[in-house]
Design goal:
By secondary structure, this protein is an alpha/beta fold. It contains twelve helices and 13 strands. The chain has two domains: 122 residues, Rhodanese-like domain (Oxidized Rhodanese, domain 1, 3-Layer(aba) Sandwich), CATH 3.40.250; 144 residues, 3-Layer(aba) Sandwich (Oxidized Rhodanese, domain 1), CATH 3.40.250.10. The longest helix is centred in the N-terminal third of the chain and has 17 residues.
């Protein structure tokens, strides 16, 4: 019998997670803050938020969900975040260029720190593009942070292993695929090329909402949608705020964007399979679904027309 992991005992209050550029400017002036730029080194060097440190590995790191893989993930980023200056007293603020152009990389940083139990984490809504549009200070000077001792805290119950996902197949758990449409349809195995991963397809029984749908245009660039708008998007796939939701994408970046969107919209039980399709597709023993999605829904449409 499948038993879902316990729900988060104290779900994080999602509303303060997203921060506007002007709110970030005020925060930096008032409290200890570490701003983390998740873009590549060349883009960072061309101009970044004044005082921001560069951590590209937030986006590039590929994780597995084995015990060894998760321990490596934990130790790698505890070290990296400590070197960036996070001791537990500072607020960590992540950004990318724009929320729809960096494959959710800033949100991946937010998810990792959430999993590591870090108490104060935010993401710039609109990213660096919104910061520039607001006319706020930009620097090309590299920042050498003052290293700190990253706190050892209990991890939050937001991380899934492939075994937990496999056990959830065919149960009432919502498996939510947020990859791009060509990955969902099985035309491509990844954002890195059609044949980057060994198999194409999706998790059996998964529902699909492309991650872009949780964002909308704003005066300063793409923004995460409001709580009601996110709830409406999920309703189109038959997903309610009290459902148990297991997210996946290719490597946990786009799904991190969706994780943030769902949490700020009041979805109470959301976890992520961080290894995602990059791990699942490489294990031939794990089942996949390859039937074109249009055929999968055809019997439903026929029943409605009858």
């Amino acid at each position: 019998m499948f038993v879902a992991p316990n729900r988060l005992e104290s779900p994080m209050n999602p509303s303060p997670t997203l921060i506007s550029p002007t709110e970030l400017e005020a925060l930096m002036a008032a409290t200890p803050t570490v701003v983390i730029d998740t873009r590549d080194a060349d883009t960072y060097a061309a101009g970044h938020i004044t005082g921001a440190v560069n951590m590209r590995e937030i986006f590039t790191y590929l994780a597995t969900s084995t015990a060894e893989g998760l321990e490596s993930l934990k130790s790698t980023f505890a070290k990296a975040f400590g070197e960036a200056g996070l001791s537990g007293a500072e607020t960590a603020v992540f950004y990318e260029d724009a929320l729809n152009s960096g494959y959710g990389q800033s949100c991946r940083g937010y998810y990792l720190l959430t999993w590591l139990g870090y108490p104060k984490v935010k993401v710039v809504n609109g990213g660096f593009s919104a910061w520039k549009a607001a006319g706020l200070p930009v620097s090309a000077e590299a920042v050498t942070p003052k290293a700190a001792s990253f706190p050892s805290l209990p991890t939050a119950d937001v991380m899934l292993t492939k075994e937990q996902v496999q056990a959830a197949l065919g149960t009432g758990v919502v498996l939510l695929d947020v990859r791009d449409v060509d990955e969902w349809t099985g035309e491509s195995s990844s954002p890195y090329g059609k044949d980057y991963a060994p198999r194409k397809g999706r998790l059996p029984g998964a529902k699909w909402i492309e991650w872009y749908r949780f964002m909308k245009p704003g005066a300063q660039g793409p923004q995460i949608k409001s709580a009601l708008e996110v709830q409406a998007e999920c309703a189109t796939a038959g997903i309610a705020t009290d459902d148990t939701i297991y997210l996946y994408c290719f490597k946990g970046a786009r799904a991190s964007n969706t994780f943030l969107a769902l949490k700020q919209a009041g979805f109470s039980d959301v976890r992520m399979y961080f290894g995602s399709w990059n791990e699942w597709s490489r294990d031939p023993a794990l089942p996949i679904e390859t039937t074109p999605p249009v055929l999968a829904v055809k019997p439903v449409l026929q029943a409605m027309a009858a």
